[in-house]
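Z., the sequence and structure:
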Amino acid sequence: MEIVLDEWIVHFIADPAKQKETGHLLTSVFRKCDRFVTVAGSPLAQKLYEMCKGYRRFDSAGRALAKMFIMRFLDNSEKLHRIPTDVAAVPEDLTSEVKEDDRYLVRAALATRDKLILTTDGPLKEALDGKHGIRVRLVDEFVEEYNP
């Protein structure tokens, strides 16, 4: 399964209240034949870059989780697929429904076979879920389905 991520992952790695759940998810994705997808130069790519530079400010659990994400995903092309920014066009009917900052998620989803976006953004889910084959799952509901 290919899972398109947005910026929540960086916030969850840094948030002590979310680290345990995030660690379980990352471990599960790593162990399965699944991988994360992001777009080069996207807001997520920028946040990941900033996390790599500044994760030492996180608490000890956050630092360990950031290191795990870097080693198992960022440094592993089999587990993190970076796609070019121009990989797929955003369908015209979605341009008015999706904020410009989130359109990279649409492009990424349309470039994958699973067309799955994992987010914490409820309005994004409302705007996209089911359109053009795109599935949008909120993190909490996905974690329950993915790690029963």
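Helices lie at 8-14, 19-31, 43-54, 60-74, 92-95, 103-110, 122-128, 139-146. The longest strand covers residues 35-39.

Let me know what you think.
H.
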